[in-house]
Amino acid sequence: MASSAAASTNTAADGPQNRNSSPQPLPTAADILNITSIAKPSAAMTALVALPVVREPGWRAGMTTINIGRNVNRESALAQITGVANTGTAACDHCQKSYGPFDGCVTSPGRFSGSCGNCHWNSSGARCSFRAPNHVNDDNDNDSSGGCRHAKRRRVGQLGNHAVTTADDDDTLAAPGDERAMALHKALMSTAVTLNTAATAATATAKALKAQGEMLAAQADALDSLQRAVVDAADLFAEEAGFAAIDDEEEEEEELEEGA
């Protein structure tokens, strides 16, 4: 049953399910747990398979065929059978409107950025009202072969000669408390980048002011040289005009008076 379920074609629409075609066998919890047919299971799949099964997937009424051969859908189904149920008004907005392939809203703590299994299906986790704000959409498969998703790094700025990055890895997120700590860490790093930008601007201003000061000092030296040249020219003019002789006579008379 596992192989036929994995090979089936997904006909689940992104809206309330209303199917009238003949029912076909749908994947059970045992089918979902059997990931041996997956060439390269994702890290999330491997971790979820190790958790105890607490329920059957609970496919929504009217579902006929399901594709759990795609990594993201298998992850969604595994979360559905091992996660925490959110009933009534505790369910996410989309689940309350009967969207998604599953009959119930189930989350797997610390995974899919908080999105429930229904919303994570078909890489649509960003629409979930449980999704952490401003989180990068990381629901898409990493490659066509269904390989493991690796930690994604986003460059958020530059500190000195080092790029500042934060890692978004759906498979390493822990409890909500840790998510809050991660959010605080990102906010602090963003603040650090802002401060670094301001420091860089201040350094540039200081350099500009230093250059301006050096230019003013050079201008002052030039003016001092000009002033000396003007004084020398004035002395030369006085000497040629006879002013120097008069001054010399006055100095001689003063000397004679002092001698008498």
Automatic annotation (TrEMBL):
Pfam families hit by this protein: DUF3716 (PF12511)
Annotated region (Disordered), positions in chain: 1-28
Bias type Low complexity, positions: 1-13
UniProt-recorded name of the protein: Uncharacterized protein
Organism: Aspergillus cavernicola
